[in-house]
Design a protein that fits this description.
The complex is a heterodimer of chains A (498) and B (422).
Chain A (H helix, E strand, L loop, with lengths): L15 H17 L7 E6 L1 H9 L10 H15 L9 E3 L4 E6 L4 H21 L1 H6 L5 H19 L1 H13 L16 H25 L2 H7 L14 H8 L5 H22 L1 H21 L5 H14 L15 H17 L3 H6 L8 H11 L2 H8 L2 H7 L2 E6 L4 E7 L5 H11 L2 H4 L2 E7 L7 E6 L9 H13 L3 E6 L5 E7 L1
Parallel strand pairs in A: 1-3, 7-8
Antiparallel strand pairs in A: 2-3, 4-5, 6-7, 8-9
Chain B lengths: L2 E4 L9 H10 L1 H14 L9 E5 L16 E6 L10 E3 L21 E5 L1 H12 L3 H8 L4 E9 L9 H34 L7 H20 L10 E8 L4 E9 L6 H21 L2 E9 L3 E4 L1 H6 L8 H15 L6 E8 L7 H13 L5 E7 L6 H12 L3 E6 L6 H14 L1
Parallel strand pairs in B: 8-9, 8-11, 11-12, 12-13
Antiparallel strand pairs in B: 2-5, 6-7, 9-10
Helix pairs in contact in B: 2-3, 5-6, 9-10, 10-11
The chains are: A alpha/beta (498), B alpha/beta (422).
């Protein structure tokens, strides 16, 4: 070992003093690499508390709902039968950044989690453009507290079942409750509470106004040209419902809003699985190795560390029993690591593919990549031929009109571009989720709501759509229609509920 | 600077509320699962929870998703032999290659989870429509009884034992003053002797003695009549209530006419009795006697699951019951309970025998005999015979049932009686 410092500890038992010592050392090394983080709040919890945290999407405070109970039961079952280890880390995008350590972990695991969550994820949360634009880290915990109290109050006043119904319906539309292009105003507990009542009254008056203007008689009298409502299609279904659903009570609108706000908060995480995990994994690997190089951790520590690191970044191949899609830890880690290699030891191929970064300062390059991309753009920008070869990626074209699948590209010179493009598309949420928007409301007639599914590549909706439509109907209160529109703009299929 | 916080002492079970909501929402499915589980488990198994399966589609949370079909390109890792342009057959299931039951929420596996013991019993009781009071008592792990256990120095005023406390005070007074009294008696005798001297007493000696006597008297008078340390209170301690042993005989007709449904009803009937007994007695033996034309003592497995055909002679089982009691369960050592389930079918000449056996040889030694007749459209000989028995014996209960919820009333009398005692 080089360096003249002694290892921080040698045993596998942890203590609070040691946690502090490791955290201090990791922070020192991280600062050396220029990682910019929120302050950390490291919480030691038991495995049962970890399961609790799991069941509520990792949020520290969440309102009550049966679906979290279901989640809890399934986590508990898998954990108790040893089918699943609990993920060893859980970290919350908040300021200060809250990270959980499980008391069962060894000292090595605690150090690994500190490096991974408190410095890796934390710096990603603080600096990635999506998180900056869509989440307000210092307000989220307050907002969750507000939401929980508000919903508990509604349960008392209007009954568990009424609240549960609304929540069920909102959850069905949760993925369609996000804005993609506007910045939400910051939330804080006090303001939220102050504004909530005002908003409720104001909204209700607006809604009434809309429908007063549009009672059916009007139409007959004036007979003027049809006015579209909404004037532009709206992709945030929950937002549209919150603002316009004719029959919702003020408290119901507020619940719709709460679900929408939380969906918005979770939205960047869905966009950055590969990047976020890759970044955190890259940094726990780099930071702990740096400590090892300085002699602050032992050989035994490193062996144990490498074993779990390898397990986390393993990628089973497509025909393996354990194959369950691409492992975001593996892909992200490989890409960030490769980026560093391209900067430090570029090959001829790298110079052709990445002329602008080959040979540049690696810290700057990685920092730029972390700040300005999400999964699809990150892959389309930085997936190198070398990583494609490493994973032996190949592309399968599945066209229902053909009897067989076609291998459309593999990891060779002619396939790199195609694979990179297809993989990027695979991480584009816009492709993963059906594109469904509010198309129109029949304001002069039966007040029916028409949603449109803009089909791409002829992909149909799953049968669950009918059930979701019933939820939309519950919120809207009048007939709801879902039209499938193909790529040429023709309405192919229409389903009605109400 | 990081802050490290120990949260391990924070409340666990933050999800308990959500768990309850989940159970409430899927009450119907869980009840069914519990009901199936009852058919599958041993009747003496009342200490464990249960695994419950709910079909995944019942509790799916719907969302807009793509269905199978259309055109899509999927990237997979780990290519071995494919080259561009290869064509491969579409795997079963339609979607991309290598995609087994995926994590897309489309897998239709059942949702499986564990009910705790308490939750299990709750659902079981609900099925039987037990009154709450009975539920609570049966679900209690150990019931205890408060019994007198001597006296203690601490207690509350209502438990003060006056006689005992005064005895203590008396003893203390004696102990504290005996020496002084003895000395007092001696000094008084001396003084008397001194005063009786003919030469006339020495005034200074008399004065000294009198002074000493007064001092002793003062001291004796200063010992309190009763002190806090004399107080004694009646003491009571909690002892586990089940302190005796019971045996429960399960009698069931297994002739051809008893189908699986009837047996399953009978099983609930036996479980309920077992639960009750195991709460009230330290040890509960279960004896299974099944019969068609002849009776046989069997284990639980055979009791519930094997089928026989042929006629029915109920008295054969009663004879066996009597013999087993005589041989193995002396009345003075055991509380005897019997539960009989049948569809009422019996050899016509035999019913009279049954009544006689019950009244003369069995009921006198039993605490309780419960009989259920399942699905008896036309009450036959056995029912009529038993009705006569029921009139004469208060520890005999009978009822015809078609559904699990009708089982409990059979035991109503039994539970009520115990309820008053407890």
């Amino acid at each position: 070992m080089n360096g003249d410092l002694k290892p921080i500890s040698t045993g596998s038992e942890w203590s609070f003093e040691l946690l502090e010592a490791y955290d201090r050392e990791i922070a020192r090394v991280a600062a050396g690499f220029g990682l910019d983080t929120y302050p950390n709040q490291i919480e030691v919890i038991s495995s049962e508390q970890m399961m609790d945290a799991y069941a509520s999407c990792g949020l520290p405070v969440y309102y009550h709902h049966w679906s979290f109970g279901k989640q809890f039961l399934s986590v508990e079952k898998h954990y108790k039968r040893g089918q699943m280890g609990l993920a060893y880390e859980l970290v919350i995008n908040s300021d200060p950044c809250i990270a959980y350590l499980m008391e069962e972990n060894t000292m090595m695991m605690q150090a690994l989690v500190i490096a991974h969550a408190c410095y890796g994820h934390n710096s990603f949360f603080k600096n990635n453009y999506l998180f900056k634009a869509w989440t307000v880290a210092d307000a989220i915990v307050d907002y969750l507290v507000f939401a929980k109290h508000f919903i508990a109050e509604c349960e008392e006043r209007y009954g568990l079942e009424a609240v549960e119904e609304i929540l069920d319906s909102c959850h069905a539309l949760m993925n369609y409750g996000v804005d993609r292009y506007r910045k939400p105003p910051p939330l804080s507990l006090r303001e939220e509470q102050l504004r909530q009542r005002e908003r409720a009254e104001y909204l209700q008056s607006q809604v009434n106004d809309l429908w007063r203007r549009t009672i059916p008689e009007n139409f007959r009298k004036t007979g003027d040209k049809e006015e579209r409502f909404p004037s532009e299609p709206e992709e945030n279904l929950l937002y549209f419902i919150e603002k316009n659903a004719p029959l919702l009570e003020p408290w119901q609108r507020e619940i719709v809003r709460i679900v929408r706000k939380i969906a918005q908060y979770l939205y960047p995480q869905r966009h950055t699985k590969v990047m976020n995990e890759g970044w955190a994994t890259f940094w726990h690997y780099t930071l702990l190795n740096a400590l090892y190089d300085q002699g602050r951790v032992t050989d035994g520590f490193m062996l144990e560390f490498l074993e779990s690191h390898t397990a986390v970044t393993a990628q089973p191949s497509f025909d393996h029993d354990f194959y369950n899609g691409i492992n975001p830890y593996a892909l992200g880690f490989a890409m960030f690591r490769d980026l560093r290699r391209i900067c430090r030891e570029p090959t001829e191929e790298d110079r052709r593919w990445f002329p602008e970064i080959a040979g540049r300062d690696w810290l700057e390059t990685l920092d730029f990549a972390m700040r300005n991309f999400k999964d699809d753009s990150f892959i389309s920008q930085y997936l190198s031929p070398r990583v494609i070869r490493q994973f032996k990626f190949f592309s399968v074209l599945d066209d229902e009109r053909e009897d067989e699948l076609e291998i459309s590209a593999i990891h060779d010179e002619s396939g790199y571009q195609a694979i990179r493009h297809a993989l990027s598309e695979q991480y584009n949420l816009g492709n993963l989720e059906p594109d469904i928007q509010v198309w129109s409301v029949d304001t002069r007639g039966d007040r029916s709501l028409t949603l449109r599914y803009f089909q791409r590549r002829d992909r149909p909706l799953a049968d669950s759509a009918e059930e979701v439509l019933r939820h939309v109907y519950r919120l809207w209160g009048f007939t709801v229609r879902l039209e499938t529109v193909d790529e040429r703009g023709r309405v192919k299929w229409c389903h009605e509920c109400g | 600077m990081s802050q490290i916080i120990d949260r391990r002492l924070n409340p666990k079970h933050k999800s308990a509320v959500n768990r309850q909501r989940f159970l409430k929402r899927f009450r119907r499915q869980i009840r069914k699962a519990v009901s199936d589980a009852v058919d599958g488990r041993s009747i003496t198994d009342t200490e464990s929870g249960e695994r419950v399966n709910i079909p995944a589609k019942d509790l799916s949370e719907p969302e807009f998703r793509h269905g199978p079909g259309g055109r899509r390109e999927i990237i997979h890792p780990g290519n071995k032999e494919f080259v561009t342009g290869d064509r491969v057959p579409r795997p079963q299931g339609g979607s991309g290659r290598g995609n087994k039951a995926s994590n897309q929420g489309e897998g239709q596996d059942d949702f499986v989870f564990e009910l705790s013991r308490d939750e299990f019993l709750e659902f079981f009781f609900e099925d039987l429509e037990l009154p709450d009071l009975v539920k609570t008592r049966l679900a209690q792990v150990v019931s205890t009884k408060s019994v007198p256990a001597g006296f203690s120095k601490d207690g509350i005023p209502p438990n003060l034992h006056v006689v005992r406390s005064l005895k203590e005070a008396h003893a203390r007074r004696i102990a504290l003053t005996a020496g002084k009294r003895r000395r007092l008696r001696r000094l008084e005798a001396e003084l008397e002797a001194l005063l009786a001297q003919e030469a006339g007493p020495d005034p200074s000696a008399v004065e000294a003695l009198e002074k000493e006597i007064a001092r002793l008297k003062r001291h004796i008078g200063a010992v309190p009549f009763i002190d806090t340390l004399d107080l004694r209170y009646r003491n009571r301690i909690q002892v586990p209530r089940p302190t005796t042993q019971a045996v429960m005989f399960c009698l069931m007709d297994v002739s051809g006419s008893m189908d699986q449904f009837k047996k399953s009803l009978a099983k609930r009937f036996f479980i309920l009795l077992y639960l009750f007994l195991s709460r009230n007695y330290e040890r509960t033996d279960v004896v299974f006697i099944r019969h068609h034309t002849i009776a046989k003592e069997v284990d639980e497995e055979e009791f519930f699951y094997s089928r026989e055909t042929g006629g029915t002679v109920v008295s054969s089982a009663l004879v066996m019951l009597r013999d087993i009691i005589r041989e193995r369960y002396p009345v003075q050592d055991w509380n005897l309970y019997a539960a009989q389930a049948s569809d009422g079918d019996n050899w016509p000449e035999d019913s009279g025998n049954c009544g006689r056996l019950l009244e003369e040889e069995i009921l006198p030694c039993l605490q309780y005999f419960a009989y259920i007749e399942i699905d008896n459209e036309y009450p036959l000989g056995l029912w009529q015979e038993y009705e006569k028995v029921a009139e004469r014996w208060p520890n005999f209960a009978m009822r015809a049932i078609d559904e699990p919820s009708e089982i409990y009333p059979v035991f109503r009398e039994l539970f009520r009686k115990r309820g008053v005692e407890g």
